[in-house]
Amino acid sequence: MPVFRALSKVAQQALLTPACGCQSLTVAIRNISFSPRQVTSGSDASFHSVSFSETDHPKVLITGGLGQLGVGLAKLLRKRFGKNNVILSDIRKPPSNVFHSGPFIYSDILDYKNLREIVVNNRITWLVHYSALLSAVGESNVALARAVNITGLHNILDIAAEHGLRLFVPSTIGAFGPTSPRNPTPDLCVQRPRTIYGVSKVHAELMGEYYHHRYGLDFRCLRYPGIISADSQPGGGTTDYAVQIFHDAVKNGKFECNLKPDTRLPMMYIDDCLRATLEVMEAPTETLSMRTYNINAMSFTPEELANEVQKQLPDLQVTYEIDSVRQAIADSWPMNFDDSNARNDWGWKHDYDLPELVQTMLNFIGSDSRIAQAN
């Protein structure tokens, strides 16, 4: 009762003060909750993951769900855990096929209260945090990238720790910089990225590991290479050329690449990426020697990719118009990932190499193109 009386008194005072008092009321109410934001005592700061029976399915929330990976991951997880146990979320309106494929909800990661309500009301146990501005887009709007990639992450971390969630946050090849070893790049080395996207991802890795050690948060992170998928359009990343080449090759037989022909970067087909994400989330805690892992499948240059595509489409014409911003970013990134820890710890193994990737992409996009022409 004294707590409620005190809260009532604060609320009455706030209503009688100018508009600035509204912020004071918000802070007073929020301080009553138990969150790492308010905890100062080391003895009280224990937010260990809520365990659930091995026979129970997790209840999963995916933020940024309408990006390149969210829809595909939701499809994979729904097959494994059931349609209603995986909730996609985003700030955009979903296309009809996504909306009718399973639960979808509006979620703004910059709105702490909205996120918290979603987690509580839906009894979320796993949170996959895909919301982010990618490398090239982030450089064109640093303020927005900072808000989404850093402030949004802080909201996610606090809520995940408070409610004992298992949290997955992807990292990237962009988390490394020009002083990092590039061929191969190990899990632990100098990073020092030069983009706001990369800086925010290093921040995510370190904050997640800190919350794991400080609060017991079950944080898991994979550094993705460039991800190639046929059923989504490029989203503003430096490795987007490796997706665009297939669309242009099938559509008009011409492709203009914005990176130099000898720019080598690690890549992965989306099915391998999504499977790796599920596997690391399901991995027993005792098998994880670290909380942030490199994963890799293949490494190639634009010229090598074009040559492989031309084996299937000999008439493809490839030209190069270098984007100086994207080229500078690519030149600071790893050429090849050392993912031996992921392979040793939890059995990571990729399925797609370059020939299989090219065949799969052309089959998928070519089929879609023929259907579109028929319609």
Rg of Cα set: 22 Å
Biggest β-sheet strands, sense, barrel: 8 strands, parallel
Shape category: globular
Q: Say how many strands there are.
A: 13
End-to-end Cα distance, whole Å, is 67 Å
Instruction: Tally the helices.
Output: 14
Structural class: alpha/beta
Beta content comes to 5-15%
- Report helical residue fraction: 40-55%
The succession of helices and strands, N to C, reads: HHEHEHEHEHHEEHEEHEEHEEHEHHH
Mean pLDDT: 86
GO molecular function: L-threonine 3-dehydrogenase activity
Pfam family, one: Epimerase
Function: Catalyzes the NAD(+)-dependent oxidation of L-threonine to 2-amino-3-ketobutyrate, mediating L-threonine catabolism.
Organism: Phoxinus phoxinus
Question: What is the topological layout?
Answer:
Blueprint: H1 2-15, H2 21-30, E1 60-63, H3 70-81, E2 86-90, H4 96-99, E3 104-106, H5 112-121, E4 126-129, H6 135-140, H7 142-162, E5 166-168, E6 171-172, H8 196-215, E7 218-224, E8 226-228, H9 241-251, E9 254-257, E10 265-269, H10 270-282, E11 292-294, E12 298-300, H11 302-312, E13 317-320, H12 324-331, H13 340-346, H14 354-374
Parallel strand pairs: 1-2, 1-4, 2-3, 4-5, 5-7, 6-7, 7-11, 8-10, 9-13
Antiparallel strand pairs: 10-12
Helix pairs in contact: 1-2, 3-10, 5-7, 7-8, 9-11, 9-14, 11-14
At a glance:
This protein is of the alpha/beta class and 375 residues long. The chain has helices at residues 2-15, 21-30, 70-81, 96-99, 112-121, 135-140, 142-162, 196-215, 241-251, 270-282, 302-312, 324-331, 340-346, 354-374, and strands spanning 60-63, 86-90, 104-106, 126-129, 166-168, 171-172, 218-224, 226-228, 254-257, 265-269, 292-294, 298-300, 317-320.
